[in-house]
Hints:
Elements: H1 4-19, H2 21-53, H3 58-64, H4 66-75, H5 78-93, H6 97-110, H7 113-129, H8 136-152, H9 161-170, H10 178-210
The structure holds aspartic acid.
Aspartic acid binds near residues 77, 112, 156, 159 and 189.
Amino acid sequence: MKLAPVGVAALIFSTVSQLGLEMLTVLFKYVGVVLLALVLHVLLTYSLILKFGAKTHVLSFYKSITEIIVTAFSTSSSNATLPTAIRVTNQTLKKRSDLVNFVLTIGATANQNGTALYEGATVLFLAQFYNIELTMLQQVAVVLLSVVAGIGTAGVPGGSLPFLVFVLFSIGVPVEGVGIIMGVDRLLDMSRTVVNVVGDVALAAWVVESEK
Ligand code: ASP
């Protein structure tokens, strides 16, 4: 974990050295768009679920799960974060453990909102990069395939990359485009894993509330 920041910088450096500085600007914009989308998803979608579904104070909820957020960010793995997520959600939020354990365990593999969002944005980015105009129908297909990919993705670092290749291939975008985003993927992986895990915890809180 201590080496992670250096490792991420090294990965980005290798991409820049191969593709040039201009490419870095394009990649920065891509990373910015994905991060902004992830933040908006947490601030809007999850906050609404927490406020109106789980009927909890949104800010204190986020504060109480800081340990989960840090673990997800540093491990890039929903599965590795599962024990921490179960412990913190049960202890700190004092929710019903049978429901919490059930929802979080399924969520760790089948509820990957951040991943679905990232895949959609990445496919659109690569299509634009290769100057491929996607029809409305293809864009709808990207959304649907990304959601399915989010459900099927394993909760491990880089778990979504095989699905990303599959989605790119299905809509006719060159799959070697994955190599372009590889250098910055670790940072995005850390971020989307946080969104994936926070989504599981928010939904667990909602289910517990609805079962009262
Ligand atoms: N690392 C992500 C997770 O564990 C999966 C992925 O998007 O690659 O949730």
